[in-house]
Amino acid sequence: MEATTAAQTTLTKKEQPRDKRRVLRFMWKYKALYLLSLPGILYFLIFKYIPLMGSVIAFQNYNLFAGFSGSPWVGLEHFTRMFSHYDFLNILKNTLLLGIYDITFAFTAPIILALLLNEVRMVLYKKVVQTVIYAPHFLSWVIVSGIFIGVLSPSSGVANTMLGWFGLGPIYFLGEDSYIRSVLVGSGLWRDVGWGTIIYLAALASINPDLYEAAEMDGAGRWRQMLSITLPALLPVITILFLLKMGDFLDYGFERVFVFQNPLNIRNSEILDTYIYKAGLTQMQYSYATAIGLFKSVVGLFLLAIANTLSKKATGESLY
Amino acid sequence: MVRRESLSRKLFLGFNYTFLTLLSLTMFLPFLNVIAQSLSSAGAIDRGEVLFWPVEITTQYYKYVFEDVSIWRAFGISVYITVLGTAINLAATATLAYPLSRQEYVGRRLVLMVILLTMIFSAPLIPQFILMREIGLVNTLWALMIPTAISAFNLFVLRSFFAQLPTELIDSSRIDGCGELRTLWSIVLPLSKPALATVGIFYSVTNWNKYMDALYYINDRAKYPLQVKLRELLITDDLSDTGNLAFEITSQSVQGVQMAVILVATIPIIMIYPFLQRFFIKGMLIGSIKS
To answer: Model-level pTM?
Structure first.
C-alpha cells in the first residue's frame, strides 16, 4: 500500500495544488467524485462509527424509552457486576482457552500444510488436493455443524462406527463438556486449514529458485534449506498474520461456537460472544452486554499493541 | 538438479503423499456421508450402517423437504437476499472504491484510514442492535443487506484494481464530457470484470451463508433465511410440530431430513465453486497485500 501511494503522489505532484484556495477549487472541479463517495462514507459512519459511540451505554442504565440522553449514568457499575458474576470467570476461561488452542493449532497448521504442499511435484495431484481442501471454507457454520453433528452422532455417526471397529465405544462428542473444545477447534481446522494455506503458498512461490540451487551447490540438505531459506522467506507473512490473530484473540467467533452449543456442553462452550448475545438480546440487559463487548474490544486492542511492540523488537515486522 | 534421491527423501515423499491424500479424504468423505444418509432408510441410519453409500435407498426425505413450504420459503428468502444483497454490495462498494482509487480525490488517505480502523476496532453488538431498531430495520429483510453493504476487505480489493487501470482512459473519457458516474459505468466497470467477479462471488457466498445477522435482527419466522431454518431443523428431534402432515415422518427419520436439508443448502455453493476457485486466489492475494 505504501509503495503504490508513494508512486501516485510523485505522479501527481505537478497537479496537486499547494495553497488552500486552490485546493478548494481543485476539489470543486472534481466534486462529482466526492458526491459519488458520499453514500459509502456515510455507510461507514452510520453503521460502524455510530454504534461505536453508542458504546457509552456501557456506563449507563440504558433503557429503550429513555434513550441515550435520558438514561441514568452509573459509571463502572456494569463492569464490576461483570467481574462479580459467578460464571464470568468460567466464560473468560473458555474464551481464553479457545483462543490459545486456536493459535496453537489453527494458526500453525496452515503453515505446515503449505510447506508439505510445496514439496508436491505432481501438478495434477496438487491441484486436486487444493480443490478439495479449499472447499469447506465456503460452507456456513450452520452447515459445518450439521455435518459434524451427523458424523459425530453416538448412534449413527461414522466416527462412532469407526471407533466401534476398534472396540471403543460410542462417545457422545457433543454431549460432554470434555470434548466440546476439541470439536470446536477440530471443526475450525476442517473448514479453514486449506484456505489458510493460500497466502503461504503464494509467499513460497515468490521465493527465488536460484537460492535453493546455490544452497544445493553448497551442500545444504533439504531440511537445512527449509530452515535457512524457506522459513525466513515466510516470516514476514507469518508475523503479520500472527499480529492480526492476536488482535482477534478474544473474537473466537459467535457463529462457530453458537451452532455447536447445547445444554450438555454449555459449561465449556460458553464464550464472551455467545454470552453477550444471550445477556443482551435474549435477556435485554443492554448496558451490561455492551460493557462486556467493550471490555472484549479493549482487551483485543491491548493485546494487538503488545504483540506489535514485541514483534517490532524481535523481527522488525509490525502492523504500524 | 541431479535426480538422485536419498532414502530419507523417499520416505518423506511417501509420508507426504499419504498424509495429503488422507487429509483430502477427511475433507471429502463427510460430504459423501451426508449424501448417503440423506438417501438411506431411517432404520439403516439409526443402526449406524450408513457410511459412504446409501443403504436401503429411499427418497422420502427429499419428498418431505419438497413438500415443506417453510423450507422453500426460507430457500426463496436466501435467494432473494443473495441476489439483491449482492447487487447492493457491488453498487455500494464500486461507487466508493472508484473515487478512492483516483489521485484527484484529496483526502483519500484520511478516508481509507477511517475505513481501516473499522477492521481493527468493531462496535459491540448491542449498540448495533439499538441502531437497527432506531432506523426501523429490525425484522425486515433489509437488516440482512444494508448493514453489511460494504466489506472493507472487498473495498480494498476493488480499489487496488481500479487504481491499476490506465489513467489515460479515464482522462479521455472525462475530456469526452462524461461525468464521473458515466465514466465509472462505461469505462471502469467493463474493464474491471475479473475483479468485480471476484468480489461479487465473495459477497454472494457471504450472503447465502448469512446466519448471525438473521438471528440478531429477524424475529418473524416467516422471514427466516435458509441457514436459520436449517439450524432450527438441526436442533429438533421431532418434526411433528412443523405442521407438515403430508408424510409419515417418525422421530427416527429426523436425521435423514436434516441431511437432505444440508444438501439443499450446500448445492448452490457447490454449483458456483468452480467459478469461485478461478477467482478467489487472485482476490485473496490482492486484498492481503493491501492490508
So the answer is: 0.86
